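Minutes, project check-in

Agenda point 3 was the complex the collaborators sent over. CS summarized: two entities, 604 residues total, and the question is how they sit relative to each other. Sequences were read into the notes so everyone works from the same version.
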Amino acid sequence: MQWSHVGLLAEALSALSEHGRRTGFQRDYGEWHAALADLKRVHAMGYDRESPLIQPYYIIEEINRHTRGEAIITTGVGQHQMWAAQYCDFRRPRLWLTSGSMGTMGFGLPAAIGAQLAHPRRLVVDIDGDSSIRMNIGELETVTTYDLPIKVVVLNNFGDGMVKQWQKLFFKGRLSASDRSLHKKDFVRTAQADGFRYAARLDRKADVPRVIEELIRFEGPAFLEVMIDPDAGVYPMVGPGQSYEEMITGEHIASRHKVDIKPPDPSEMF
Amino acid sequence: MSDTVIQPRPAGHPLAGQTLSGARMIVQVLADEGVGAIFGYSGGAILPTYDAVFLFNEEQRQSGGEQIPLIVPANEQGAGFMAAGFARATGRVGVCLVTSGPGATNTVTPIRDCMADSVPIVVICGQVARASIGTDAFQEAPVAALMGSVAKHVFLVTDPTRLEATVRSAFELARTGRPGPVVIDVPKDVQNWEGVFHGAGTLPLPGYRRRMKELTDQVIETGEAERFFEMLGDSQRPLIYAGGGVINANAAEALTAFAATFGIPVVTTLMGIGSIDTTHALSMRMLGMHGAAFANYAVEDCDFLIAAGASRRSSRAARAASRISTSTAPKSTR
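CS then shared the predicted structure for the full assembly.
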């Protein structure tokens, strides 16, 4: 059975709410709610909290501890984008700005500039990746030219993390053109050269809470490069063309299916 | 499209009836639309309009009126994404002003990005003078052909008397229906043309406006609502699947109220994040390829999936929904 309506969404939802209220519609979904609460508890997000390396999820959790779902978060495209989507809270619409359909790397920094101009007093954080930010890194200078108090966080895992993740899973670990660990880019000096008075590199796990707090509280443009575990992956992952039963949850999220990692059809996209 | 321009209402705009340059008209319509900021990079073919922005802001400064900040990126792709960031964060139309040729082609990526994510922006590109179009002139690119396949709509203004109405119509097209990017390609001689400013009036767009009216006139009849609640009543495990359309349609409040009234949990797509407070008791967060495991399991376990403002093109949730017996789709149109 199907039901559909094409029209104005807010009006349609309000009309349905109104109809339900008027006719006294009521159902007890208590059992369903309890089942979902169990799912949330048993299959909660998780990662290796004991690792000596800085885990990207930890960084996002720390940012979120300060922003509390009230900041505008922009991203590039790739692993950091998914980590931000998974670990940040959003208390209202229009705080989460990301290139969803096109998936354009380089979106985060200029989008943050536009958002900060629209909302001069709201905290704007660009959670970016080392490869994504390079696509439009010239706009660092735009941030300081207009003295926009944007916080730029680059999660550096030396390369195209999402591409590497797919290559590890589906191309027997052949990291064709996705690993840049030999490159000599110095992001902190780049930011300094573009006029950032706060530009720091975070590479010790013990410093994470202090540095993130410093960054968020800094008045004015601020730039932070975080040297994250280069092997950190995005989990869960439902491979392209695969069903939810085939979802790979990694070592730190409980799965309810026994999953053999099968390579997807090599031509499948997402 | 017919040749007539809907004529303005009498007595309205303070500049109505005055002779202005095309460039000044563009800036005036931007000011009337309350754009808040212009993001862009100058160049030969757009110089008259940049000059008009300068003069407008100078006048405003002297009269104590509101100026339009002009934000200059390093690259026009940045300007496009700044306009998009502005639009996404506010729901208002973002504005990007660039020159011809490379200025315009550098905005192709953000324009396509805005189309794909339904983000309202207006991109105004300078173009070589009308007589030079098609001659491989300096900094010439076939903007109408390039953008035609990526934008929601493209105008090449060849008749300067229609410039004012075109700019105004571009804003209407960008923000109505499924929001998206609208490009206006303005030859340099059209910017330098002088004519009477009307202060009101839009292009006729009869087909588009009729389709919009048909869509916005759609209401849920009582019988349809009854059928919906029968299905909901038969369900033990209903789940709302909220997409970016909820955000674009400014329907987050209505969605949260709907979910809370009947106690229906909500998963969102990547683009639907924020359509319900992620810390709300009914929020099951994001589903999908990298969605929370519990969100994806919720989709597996539900027996009635209510899609709101979500496209169903390639998503697994759509496939999951096709396995269960019921699904509904109040789609966003605004």
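Noted in discussion: Chain B touches chain A through 111 residues (CB under 8 Å).
Follow-up: revisit at the next meeting once the mutant set is ready.
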